[in-house]
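Continuing the batch. This is chain 6 of the set; chains 1 through 5 are on the previous pages. Same settings as before, nothing changed between runs. Recording input and output for traceability.
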Amino acid sequence: MTTRLSVSGRWIEGWDPENTEFWESTGKKIARRNLLMSVLSEHIGFSVWSLWSVLVLFMSPDIGMDFAPGEKFLLVVVPTLVGALLRLPYSYAVTRFGGRNWTVFASAVLLVPAGLAFVFIQRPGTPLWVFLLIGATAGVGGANFASSMTNITIFYPQRHQGWALGINAGGGNLGVAAVQLLGLLVIVTVGDTHPSYVVGTYLPLIVLVALLAAVRMDNVDAVRARPGALKEAAAHRHTWWISLLYVGTFGSFIGYGFAFGLVLQNEFGTTPQQAASVTFLGPLLGSFARPLGGRMADRWGGARVTLWNFLGLAAGTLVLLVASRSGSAGLFVAGFTALFVLSGMGNGSTYKMIPAVFAREAEDAITSGADAQPAFARARRVSGAVIGIAGAVGGLGGVAINLAFRSSYQGASGNAEIAFLCFLGFYALCVLVLLTVYGRRGRAEEATARTARPRATHVR
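Output for chain 6:
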């Protein structure tokens, strides 16, 4: 049977991407247009969110800002924390107000942190607490991720969600590398005393993206969550296992992205230009790796790909320990770059596990006699809520990483060794979870979900 699609105002009704005929004739084009706009908005959001990881490199007595390393780490912790905490309400908001409407707002509100940073970043004598408050407002950029991912999940059929979510998140993650490249460009061309140039570049871009989202995006009725979806997701055990894994993958990516420049300065005494010249590389490669991780998970299963990524993260952390003890800056940068790539791939594969797990539950319900359409509708509804929860919890991993670095450098050793040992232990825990919770049975379930035949349904 065919899907009847209707458009009322800015809302699309009757959206059914699992219907192959509808997807190929109509749905694919609409989904790609919304995906492109979503990527642009999330990209600018991530740039604003990670803005302070660049601005702290400029903070020196030369511009009247003599902050200690521990204070600078606080400046990158605060936006990470606020961004993580806001992800749950952002994920819910897109189900309440619609993907287009919320993306317009989420893009426009970025003018607040960018505008405040532009005004205060070159005011000598500005106290730390002012910068901490401004950094807190930058958290809205990180929250964009949750609403964006929830929205894009609805647009794509389950068989393509690993790729689509990987593209969406990877394009957003590129914002971390983009702002760091911009910081390097400013330092190289005009020196390290003009941080306002970095911030000022984003003000017109924010306005442009908000306008494009208003013109080019759509609201879809299917994104509207029934009351209790978040509660239902919170009561599901897989929500918390996957959230734990996402702490290890996304927490590593964003935590390392925010801290890398400061770690290089503390470990090897690098200058702002030297630090900025390498810090962008890891986030850049990690962002491109995320869609690859999603694509690999589409083929081999999210649990299997995530397991291998955590084994790689553990090996990369051992490389950092060796490099730190031997004083090898080259090996240190290579190890960190590998961690970015692996965490990026792990981000894509872990998020692929969410729709796969709940699609499998829908298949089980149908086998037991349940109707297909309500079963898959529930799977989509709960998956969207889980994406919000996992995104929020995963963001807290970035907070933990920066706090671990701060404590390690303030400790007796004065280096990052204790922090790296903590990370190594957590990666080992994630490997254990994957082997015990998502072992052979979990991979078999994912395989069933990946090959589940799409059903053509009639939507009224």
